Amino acid sequence: MNNYQLPEEIRHLLEQSNSRQPEEFTDLIREGGYIPPDNELLIDAITALSMGKNVLLKGPTGAGKTRFAETLSNLFNQPMFSVNCSVDLDAESLLGFKTLAYQGEKQVIEFVPGPVTNSMNYGTFLYIDEINMAKPETLPLINGVLDYRRTITNPFTEEIIQAREGFGVVAAINEGYVGTVPLNEALKNRFVVIDIPYLQGDQLKQLIKDSTALDDDRTIDLFVRLSGDLIQAVSQGKLSEDAASIRALLDACDLSSLIPAKRAILRSIIDKLDEDRERDFVRNLTETLFG
């Protein structure tokens, strides 16, 4: 582990990870950070990044992948530039673009760096969200960034950029959604994959307390039960994964600090669903729990 200067307390816990208690790891995570359901997820992600490997977070929508990436950035004391992938992602979105500027009264062409070039030049983390939303012909532009070379030739300036020490890549993927494409093997093989499950039980309860305005324990417990029922329904094929989004659940918790919980769930979860059958299912669950 010699690619990064890990904070001493994290390095010490990693070296003795087999003998450490879960609370010793979660104590390192700042309030509102991602507390994984299994400490091995945190240990393995930190280990991979500390060895200079790219990490791919795989899991359902709203499971906390972006929050996990932000938590890793904080643990390493590393700023993080972000790329949000879509079918419109192109070289300029990744690397930057040329624009007209003025030096005194003289008009010149300047290059404005993008997230990839910025993170390489400054030696920070790069987060690539929904990486499988990008067109297959776009991402090969950064293959050299993602392998041992850590370099790219900027097509706009012809400059060869070598990533500074500290550069690292975390990406996230939602599989099977409309608009996504399978990652090709050349790209997938450049990552260590970590599967992120939904948070449940006490960890979800703590996340609600840390991340929302809701502070009523009884209502929080009901939301934790609702989330568990939604996750079970998703696993049984009764609901789409969108219905069990932790992000949507947190929105509902926030709203329910000021409006009735059933209405908060309607706005944050139910009305987002496309099918009447799914909306009725969640509405009935809500009525059963919240009365």
Automatic annotation (TrEMBL):
InterPro entries named among the record's database cross-references: AAA+_ATPase, ATPase_dyneun-rel_AAA, CbbQ/NirQ/NorQ/GpvN, P-loop_NTPase
SUPFAM superfamilies, sorted: P-loop containing nucleoside triphosphate hydrolases (SSF52540)
Signal peptide positions on this chain: none
Annotated ranges, domain AAA+ ATPase: 51-197
Highest taxon in the source lineage: Bacteria
PANTHER family: MAGNESIUM-CHELATASE SUBUNIT CHLD, MOXR FAMILY PROTEIN
Protein known as: AAA family ATPase
